[in-house]
Each structure stands twice: as C-alpha cells, then as structure tokens.
Amino acid sequence: MKIIIINGPNLNLLGTREPDVYGNQTFENYLKALQLKYNTVQLDYFQSNIEGRLIDKIQEVGFSYDGIILNAAAYTHTSIGIADAVKAITTPVIEVHISNTFAREEYRQHSFLSANVKGIIIGFGMKSYELALQSLL
Ligand code: DQA
User: Fold this and answer.
1) What residue ranges do the domains of the chain occupy?
2) Ligand 1 centroid vs 22 CA: distance in angstroms?
3) Which CATH number among 3.40.50.9100, 3.30.240.20, 3.40.50.740, 3.90.1150.10 corresponds to the domain 2-103?
4) Ligand 1 centroid vs 53 CA: distance in angstroms?
5) Distance in angstroms (rounded) separating the CA atoms of residues 70 and 96
6) At 53, is the pLDDT very low, low, confident or very high (cuts 50, 70, 90)?
7) Which residue from 33, 68, 80, 111 lies 20 to 30 Å from 51 (Cα-Cα)?
C-alpha cells in the first residue's frame, strides 16, 4: 500500500512555528514514528511552500498511490488550482488540518478542497495525520 502525506506552505516550520497552535514536534520526528508504527505501509512525504509544486506532486502520485493525506495549509483557503488537481485525480484524498480551523479566523473556515476530498480530519493536532492514515487503511 502506497500512501503519501503532502504538506503545504509553512508546515516545514512545525516545531518552531506558533507552538501554541501547532505544538512543539517537528514533522520529521512525527513522521519517523508514524512510519515505524505503520511499517507495512509505504508512507512517503512531500512538502512545498510553492503552489505549483504541490499541484505537480498531486498529479504525479494521483493515479498510482492508494491515498493522499493533504494538508494544503493556507492554500486550502485560496487555491482553486489545488482543488482542481484533487478533483482531476483518481487517488482518494483526505484533507487534514492540525488546528481546528473553525475555531480560528473566519478566513480559515472556508476550504476550496473539501468538496473534492473523500473525508476531512480537523483539529486533532499532529494526530490528525494518523487518523487520516487509519481511515485509508
Ligand atoms: C492548517 C490551518 C491553515 O489555516 C493554516 O494556514 C496552516 C495550517 C492546519 O493544519 O491547522 O498553515 O492547515
């Protein structure tokens, strides 16, 4: 089984970025633990701060992988391009957010992606990624 986590802008700063909102753990450390726990799964990872690179990656994996766990971060609220890419592919996508976006600023409460994904997991901290993985398994 091949699953990829795709993280969008500023998520490379997890661990140091707004720890009160996103916690203290780096994504690299979290990912290592997840890969060990689910070692029968090929769990890949891609992060970019650039919208087009995220679209390229979604297109690249979107017809051969078994699942995409996508935290498009701020692009969730702005990107019709990423929403169209999610709609264009055949691999199921789970939209994930670390924080509860509905408890934050109003502009975080709309997602261009949600209508095109299989499911959404929001607000469980880093655990959101594991819950998304379990849903795909
Ligand atoms: C986020 C929520 C977004 O609103 C924000 O822009 C992020 C992270 C989350 O995981 O909680 O960068 O997607």
Assistant:
1) 2-103
2) 9
3) 3.40.50.9100
4) 18
5) 6
6) very high
7) 33
Asked whether residue 23 carries a pLDDT value surpassing 90, the answer given is no
pLDDT in tens, 61-82: 999 999 999 999 999 999 999 9
Look at the block and give the residue holding tokens 């019709």. 80
Please determine, for residue 50, whether its predicted confidence score (pLDDT) is greater than 90: yes
Q: Check if the beta carbon of residue 44 is closer than 8 Å to that of residue 67.
A: no
Q: Tokens representing 13?
A: 């700063």
Output the pLDDT for position 85: 98
To test the pocket of ligand 1, the residue of 17, 98, 110 to mutate (highest count of ligand atoms within 8 Å of its CB) is 98
Annotated catalytic residue, options 22, 30, 75, 129: 22
Distances (CA, A) of 62 to 17, 59, 67: 29, 5, 8
Lookup: tokens for 44:
């890949």
